[in-house]
Design goal:
This protein is 0% helix and 24% strand. The chain is mainly β.
Length: 76
């Protein structure tokens, strides 16, 4: 999977804090680890180091974030 948008947008809002600027991951690839939850989000383990980019990451699975399925594009 690749991240094509975050929260349906291609750019971070002006008031976005650096630790929450997940738009820095646009274009990054990863592996979906879980089925969608009740909010339509899946746990994605990224191929890039999330913490190295200064982003918050508090899931039990290292280097993973809950992402809306609609923000992801399947790789072929």
């Amino acid at each position: 999977m690749t991240l094509q948008t975050f929260l349906g947008m291609t750019a971070a809002p002006a008031d976005c804090s650096p630790t929450n600027n997940y738009w820095l991951l646009l274009g990054a690839t990863g592996t979906v680890l879980t089925p969608p939850n009740a909010e339509g989000r899946v746990l994605v383990r990224w191929d890039v180091d999330v913490a190295e980019r200064g982003l918050a990451c508090h899931n039990p699975e290292p280097n993973s974030l809950l992402i809306a399925e609609s923000d992801l594009l399947a790789l072929r």
